[in-house]
């Protein structure tokens, strides 16, 4: 049974290899044919007068630039579409910010003093202390707990 399995696998690999080789031969034939066509076109171009060669070169360059221009136009259209989308999103977010700011100015009077107290507390915490801290060894757990909170 193991020998048959190995034989089947070997035959399958051989078949896949032959298919790959055939595909590569076909691809190579196509490339060879394309190369021969390009060589023939090049030889025909060399036989033309210099004026015609220049004209053909210009036509090829015009074609290349036209294709490049079309690609750039397509890219520009995508960028413009993205810009419009981003502007719409910005308007939506600006509206949300304005609505939020408007809701903050209409806060009830009883909440405002509490907010001022919070701001004062924050301002006190922002003082700039310098120097070393002196403490007793037995106060260390209490100090750490206060620092954390």
Q: What is the typical, i.e. mean, pLDDT? A: 84
Count of discrete alpha- or pi-helical segments spanning 4 or more residues: 4
First-residue to last-residue Cα separation: 73 Å
Elements, N to C (H/E): HHHH
**For the CA atoms, what is the radius of gyration?**
39 Å
- Largest beta sheet, briefly? none
How many strand units?
Answer: 0
* Global shape: flat
Beta-strand portion reads under 5%
The oligomeric state is single chain
Helix content percent band: over 70%
Segments where pLDDT lies below 50 for 5+ residues? 116-125
Structural class: mainly alpha
Describe the protein:
Among the domains are: 1-47; 51-105. It is built from four helices and no strands. With 149 residues, it is mainly α.
Write the layout of secondary structure elements.
Elements: H1 2-47, H2 50-105, H3 111-125, H4 140-148
Coiled coil: 3-103
Protein name: MYO5B protein
Organism: Rhadina sibilatrix
List keywords for this structure.
149 residues; mainly alpha; 4 helices
Provide a quick synopsis of the model.
The protein has 149 residues and is mostly helical. The protein is 85% helix and 0% strand.
């Amino acid at each position: 049974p193991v020998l048959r399995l190995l034989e089947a696998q070997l035959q399958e690999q051989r078949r896949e290899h032959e298919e790959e080789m055939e595909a590569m031969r076909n691809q190579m034939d196509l490339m060879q044919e394309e190369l021969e066509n390009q060589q023939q076109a090049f030889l025909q171009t060399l036989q033309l007068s210099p004026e015609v060669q220049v004209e053909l070169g210009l036509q090829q360059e015009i074609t290349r630039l036209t294709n490049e221009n079309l690609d750039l136009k397509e890219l520009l259209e995508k960028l413009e579409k993205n810009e419009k989308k981003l502007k719409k999103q910005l308007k939506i977010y600006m509206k949300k910010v304005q609505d939020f700011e408007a809701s903050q100015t209409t806060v009830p009077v009883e909440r405002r003093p509490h907010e001022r107290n919070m701001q004062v507390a924050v301002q006190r915490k922002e003082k700039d202390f310098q120097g070393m801290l002196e403490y007793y060894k037995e106060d260390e757990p209490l100090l750490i707990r206060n620092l954390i909170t």
